[in-house]
Amino acid sequence: MPTKQKAETIQLIKEKLEKAQAVVLTDYRGLNVAQVTELRKKLRDAGVEYKVLKNTLTKIAAKEVGIDEAIDNYLEGPIALAFTYDDPVAVAKILADYAKDHDKLEIKAGILENKIIDAAGVNALAKLPAREVLIAQALAGMQAPISGLVNVLQGSIRNLVYALDAVRAQKEEQ
Q: Phi and psi (nearest 5°) for 49?
């Protein structure tokens, strides 16, 4: 039977897992305090919460939330979880970039929409463009047909103006 403090911790982890759009599990062994502090600052600036939680409590909370039991395979050793509530790509980019510079940081797995993705999936997520870029690309795609229609309509009006100008020039010559 878990103690009251453990039950509260499990409830806190459950709330974080339910609210988060994405969670990335990292093994931070080998990073010194300055490096972990630098990583935490980068993540905090992006609105990401980086927590070291007990693996057994995280397993219980994940099971209660309905996350695949495959997460048990990744919750071994010292694991830190990065919770993002906004942009799943941002947390993946920050951690992947940091892992390139610091060999000791290992991305173990991720949770995206209550589905487990492996480290390769997290790295693929990191390669996606930022949210703002994706929105701009979608809007540009929607705007293109409208722009084409406007150009076609303007072409007809432009041709009418040219024809009227030619008639005017012809009348002036007579």
A: -100, 125
How far CA 129 is from CA of 22, 45, 80, 108, 137, in Å, comes to 16, 19, 25, 22, 10
Record the tokens describing residue 43, joined without a space. 């993540």
For residues 114 and 78, is the Cβ–Cβ distance under 8 A? no
* Cα separation, 164 vs 143, whole angstroms: 32
Closest CA to 13 of 83, 71, 115, 68: 83
Q: Tell me the Ramachandran region of residue 78: left when phi exceeds 0, alpha when psi lies from -120 to 50, beta otherwise.
A: beta
Local structure of 86: helix, strand or coil: coil
pLDDT digits (tens, 9 = 90+) for 135-149: 888 888 887 787 777
What residues contact 33, with CB distance under 8 A and at least 6 apart?
none
pLDDT digits (tens, 9 = 90+) for 11-31: 999 999 889 888 999 998 888
Which one-letter amino acid corresponds to residue 21? Q
Helix 55-65 and helix 4-19, axial crossing angle in degrees, nearest 10: 50
Q: In Å, how far from its chain's centre is CA 134?
A: 11
Between the CA of residue 102 and those of 3, 105, 156, what are the distances in Å?
Answer: 38, 6, 61
> What is the domain class of 4-128 according to CATH?
alpha beta
Which helix (H) or strand (E) segment holds residue 50: the answer is: strand 48-52
